[in-house]
Amino acid sequence: MIPGDTRALVHGVITAVRDVADAVIVPRFRQLAAYQIKSKTTPGDVVTVADEESERLLGPRLKSLLEGSRVIGEESAFADPTLFDLLQGTDPVWIVDPIDGTANFVNGVAQFAVIVALVHGGETKMGWIYEPLEGRTLWAEKGKGAWRTGPMALGAAPGHRPNHQQVRTPPASGRLKDMVASMHNKDLNALRGKFARNIRLGSAAHDYWSLAEGRSQVLAYRKLKPWDHAAGLLIHEEAGGYNRLLSGERYDPTRREQTGLLCTPTEAIWREIKEMVKDVAYPRPS
To answer: Binning pLDDT at 50, 70 and 90, where does residue 44 land?
Structure first.
């Protein structure tokens, strides 16, 4: 069971992710040898020794923080898709993306992160996005808001209360032509030119961080994997944003076949955009 007072859990995850990132991710940034990089499904879908070691080290650390919990990592699930079945069980499950934005990491672009989500009872209870180069964490707990924790808080003495700053998505103007969008769904090409500009960050973690802090206002994805989206969607919602599948349903991290996601600052803006692409429909997830 997830404890009622989750402060120790929050800090424990941040500490574990920081320790692992400092040990195996940061030292390899712009230092990878060719033999430390390999393709998974396509030449652009890469994994590195840093991804693999990060996931291997994080699993035991996370399980030790919550008795009876299980772990699903992106790389382990790629090797053994039956691990998804853990999400249908009764145990709390940690979902780990050991490096989100691996292509950026490989190419020396400083936009990558570690993502951790805690799922229980069919919903995401907590989520963390950690920036290894900055030492910052964006995290949220369901029903308790979204927060940003800076690197200095992590070096504090035992018993010191970390400096958590609440994050609230700034109000949007309401006009699409003033908004910044990050569109990852070619089925929504009807929206092309409707926004002030479109950005491509190469990292779902940074997409959600940008949304939460108001540097972008609209985000759309077609394919949805839980390690990319479970934590970020909770953070966006707890920061005050609105997100739904294009079917109108909430994202469910325990369902494998979900398609079409739209995130906006408000429900009204979501409905306005949905009306513009009403001919785009996907089967409801089973």
So the answer is: confident
**Structure confidence by residue, pLDDT tens digits, 91-111:** 999 999 999 999 999 999 999
**What's the Cα-to-Cα distance from 222 to each of 99, 184, 240, 258, 271, rounded to whole Å?**
20, 7, 22, 9, 18
How far is Cα 110 from Cα 116, in angstroms, rounded to an integer? Answer: 19
Q: 240's torsion region: left (phi>0), alpha (psi -120 to 50) or beta?
A: left
Tokens, residue 79: 């090797």
Alpha helices in the chain (DSSP H): 7-20, 49-65, 74-79, 102-106, 204-213, 226-238, 267-276
Q: Return the number of other C-beta atoms located less than 10 Å from residue 199's C-beta.
A: 16
Place of tokens 């080290």: 57
- Between helix 226-238 and helix 204-213 the angle, nearest 10°, is 0
Tokens, residue 178: 């003033």
Instruction: Provide DSSP, 182-237.
Output: EEE-GGGGGGTTSSSEE---S-HHHHHHHHHHTS--EEEEEE--HHHHHHHHHHHH
Domains within the chain, CATH numbers bracketed? 7-167 (3.30.540.10), 176-276 (3.40.190.80)
Mean pLDDT of 263-284: 91
